[in-house]
Amino acid sequence: MPPAETSAEAVDVTALLERGRTLSTPVLRAAVDRLAPPMDTVAAYHFGWIDALGNPADGDGGKAVRPALALLSAEAAGAPPETGVPGAVAVELVHNFSLLHDDLMDGDEQRRHRDTVWKVHGPAQAILVGDALFALAGEVLLELGTVEAGRATRRLTRASRALIDGQAQDISYEHRERVTVEECLEMEGNKTGALLACASSIGAVLGGADDRTADSLERFGHHLGLAFQAIDDVLGIWGDPEATGKQTWSDLRQRKKSLPVVAALAAGGSASEELGELLAADAKSNDFDSFSETEFAVRAALIEAAGGREWTNQEARRQHTVAIEALNSVDMPERVRAQLTALADFVVVRKR
């Protein structure tokens, strides 16, 4: 392949994402079909395969970054991309387990431009289907019956525990007036970084890679996850609802201590102090749920004035750099290196 075609700029990221979706979706649907009614139908609604009435639908199934990473990690180990499919499916099952539970815990009524599962089918079904997807993830891997499958399952289980730790931290921070930047990064490293780290290595493990290679790919995914979440935090405040599928000022409505917020509070200066006073008052307010768009806009403007938005964008770029550096210790085809780099580039420039 000519050198120009192996550069990150020449990679078609959309095609990589679509390949991950195309190869993993049939296996994912087959796994979901194992669920007892009505959980199979509820899960199908969550994934966008049917509408609320049970009619076939072509809903937005998400960005498919994790399946794309799982397939690329298999290729990084010299295996065919198909080797990573069970890992891609297992990671997607865990990811969607977390989304079902997070939406309920956060009170989110919209995801991917549709009503969330708990809103349509009730909280009990959101909990049960989330639990079922989590159990399915282990099944999909362990039924391969190989040593590599056992290694992959251990990594997925460890990542899942970290993800849950991160969600617990996230919820606890909502009730605190102040959270440090370091605490926020630790939480986001657990909540988002751990599963992206697993996605970035699980295909390689299934392909027979040694622990040194898998650990380097995990480091890539972990720092990519921190970059991913930093951009998510920016979009959670300033994202276009048409693109994100969430409400305006989504994270502010949930009082999330996301990176832009904690960075702004730590910055000092008049905007930082005014923001701190407002958020402290918000925590004690009985009228928070009735705040107007203007009141949320004021808080977003103060975060930006204090430097929280710019700091978070810079942190995303820094984590992106560290992620790419982690690939240097992995001996892989240059085509795959360019594709992993392009996918990392996509993460820090996306709009949703």
TrEMBL record:
Transferase among keywords: yes
GO biological-process terms attached to the record: isoprenoid biosynthetic process
Domain of life: Bacteria
InterPro entries listed in its UniProt record: Isoprenoid_synthase_dom_sf, Polyprenyl_synt, Polyprenyl_synt_CS
Pfam families for the chain: polyprenyl_synt
Keywords on record: Magnesium, Metal-binding, Transferase
Entry similarity comment: Belongs to the FPP/GGPP synthase family.
Identification of the protein by name: Dimethylallyltranstransferase
Origin species: Streptomyces uncialis
